Structure formats: structure tokens, C-alpha cells
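Students often ask what a holo structure prediction actually looks like on paper. The answer is less mysterious than it sounds. You provide the chain, you provide the ligand, and the output is a string of C-alpha cells encoding the 3D arrangement of the protein together with iron/sulfur cluster.
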Amino acid sequence: MRGCDCCDEPAVARVREPDRHFCATHFTGFFEDRVASTIRNDDMIKPGDRITLALSGGKDSTALLLVLAHLMPAWENVRIVAITIDEGIAGYRDETVRAAVELTADLGIEHHTVTFHDLFGDNLDTLLVGREREACTVCGILRKKALAVAAERYGATKIATGHNLDDEAQSVLMNTLRGDLPRLVRDAAQENTCFIQRIKPLSLTPEKEIAIYLMINNAWKVLPECPYTRFALRAEVRGILSKLEYRHPGTMTNLIETKKKIGRYCAGAQVSEPIRRCRECGDPCSAALCQVCRLRHSLGR
Ligand code: SF4
Ligand code: ZN
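The corresponding C-alpha cells follow.
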């Protein structure tokens, strides 16, 4: 059996790009160091920050909370509040909410659950009747709003999400496939359309390494998959990109690099409407009405 590149223990994890082998201890160190340097290089966390962490209870946000909880003692006066958004998806969300409650109790982290039902008057399943194919679009718009409401309610200065390298690469490809240049440029420029800054400390961490980190740290849980995943373009893009990454290592990182270059080349260019206020709710948006208000109208609410 091949040994760890850093000690005499047997290797339990292989990392590509560059090709390295690690024992459990050195993999955990490597993993947490990369998250710490992602945070440092982008100046994501400052002394005194109160961070709202979007904790779905799934693997990405679970790993993010574990890493931030480990790193937190090194930061001056930084607090984390975990927020779980319960969209109201039967047979799926209850289990992940339970996992989130257990994890935060174990770590001694403040935790709150915010429901679509309380904020928007109904759960996602009911809102989607007859328009299930739009599930992820509707869910994404409302979840973003729910997180912003929760962040404001609990006095957050930053919103941290568990988006990983695979998610980020998928988004670049999806925006390209949809021909959505304004969004691609907005993402590339890390333009903030919310009042509270969003940070993604796992954005350079591959999904596979998150799974290894959770297994090594006894935090891996098999949870149900969202029933609406089958309608999502993301699910197809994910399959295609995983195959490409396997056959051509570095594909995902190259997509992220492309996004950064687009951001640099388009810096200052007016590719989308300037940010203004929604005429109904006052939220920042690029049209007369924000996405949430438009959605409310189309849902007849
Ligand atoms: Fe929401 Fe779509 Fe994710 Fe399900 S798969 S939780 S509907 S975004
Ligand atoms: Zn609005």
C-alpha cells in the first residue's frame, strides 16, 4: 500500500492536481489549509465579522461548518450563526434539517431554521404545483431571499455558503449554455447584488475531497436527494463535467480560470442593467421589479 507523502502512515486519500497521497491527519491538514488560504487570499473574513452560514445539512455546508469551527479560534472576535432554510420539500428536507440541528448542537454553534412557509406563505411543494419543471429556479430565488432575511434578522456581516469547485465550474458552463453573459460577468466580477457580502470558502475545493474530508472526520451521512433534481439542468451538467474532469484533470479549474479572465476583460463594461431598487420591496435588482416580486406575481400571490 502506498504511504502518505508527508509521513510513514498508509495513505487513505489521493488528491489530483498536483498528484498527492495523504494519511487521514495530513489530508485533513491539507484540506483545511486550502480553505484557510482561500479565505485569506480573498480577504473573506475580518475581525468582528458575524457570519451567517447557510447550513442545509448536506455534505458541502456540513464540511464548511466543520472547517470554519476548527479555524474560528484563530480569528479575532468572529462569530458564526448557522441558518437552515426549510423550503418544505416532502421526503427530503426533514432529514437534512435534523442533521443540521444535530451537528450544530454537537459543535455548540447557534442555529436557526427559517421556513418558506413562514416567509412566503406556503411550502415549495405547494408553490410548485403545475410548474415542477421550474423547481430549481423558483427554489433558488426564494432561498436567496430567505437567506438575506435571516442574515439581516441575526445581524450578519457576511453570508457564507458551501459552494465548491464543482458547483462553481458547473455555473460557468450553465451560464454559457444559457447564453447568460450578464450573469457570467456578474459572477466573474463577484458583483454583490445583496446588501450583505457573500463568501464561498470552499470555492477551490473539489466535491470529491469534501466527501473524503467528511468520511475521515466521521461526518459522512447518506441523505435523500431532492426529488426535483431530475428537472435540473445542473444535474446533467454535473454528469458531463465529472466525466470530463476524470478524463482531462484540470477541466473544472480551467473553467474557473476562464470565468476570472472574462471578469478581467469585461471590468467596467456595461453588460447588464445597473443595480437599482425594486419598486415594490426596495431590494437591490437590475429591473423595475426584483426576481422575488416578479415570482410572487406569477404565482398569483
Ligand atoms: Fe431546490 Fe432544486 Fe436544490 Fe431541490 S434540487 S433543493 S428544488 S435548488
Ligand atoms: Zn421586490
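The mean pLDDT is 92.
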